[in-house]
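User: Quick sanity check before I run a bigger batch. Here is a single chain. Can you write out its predicted 3D structure?
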Amino acid sequence: MNWLQVTYQPTTLFSLKPSWATSSGGKSLLLPSPYALKMGLLDVAIRVDGWTQAEVAWSWLRQLEIGIQLPEQIVVTNLFAKILKIRRNPAREGSADAGPFQKTIAYREYVYFSDAVHLALGAPAEHLPLLTKWLLNLNYWGKRGGFVQLMGPPTAVSDLSGYTLLTQEMTAFPVRGVMQRIDDCDPQMKLDNANIYSKSRPKRIARDVALPYRLKKSSRSYSLYKRVAG
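Assistant: Done. Predicted structure follows.
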């Protein structure tokens, strides 16, 4: 297994709901999940090299090992936002709210990273040239509005100290840290399962990960997390 390290600077607020959340419950993860990152890379692979190349690469792309190093502080904004929701019952005749959508409110969270985010990705050596090219073209995480700016070309790395590995099961429950349940591609997931135009549903697995952070401050409008020393 060979590892590449790459750094991105988020240019907008990040938001990614857990895969089991409802449309009204918009609580966000504090980090992009392996599933979201792999879908982002798959999107790049299709746009840059075409469907055939993406289909060939899918067998190793879904098995990517991923580690992440988040900034010193993370701030989560908590708010209620107005949204449009598909109407279940027809509106009353002459109503100002007529149409296929109805107005409602929903809880949302948006994550602000105070500094750049570092990723480490592991794959067999023969796949690193393609992976490098796709990382150069990756410009969003989570929702498509969560844009990031590449800070430099990917480089080889062997020391993963400081990284939280997202694709490996925890062997011990940490005393300090923030737990996150993230999703990843099922080892048997086929490319057709990732195709939004297919009737096949995505196949995911859930994994718990402990981030080395603690909740330092919070109010009704925000939560501040700070990295735990050591």
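The two ends are 27 Å apart (CA to CA).

User: Great, the batch can go ahead then.
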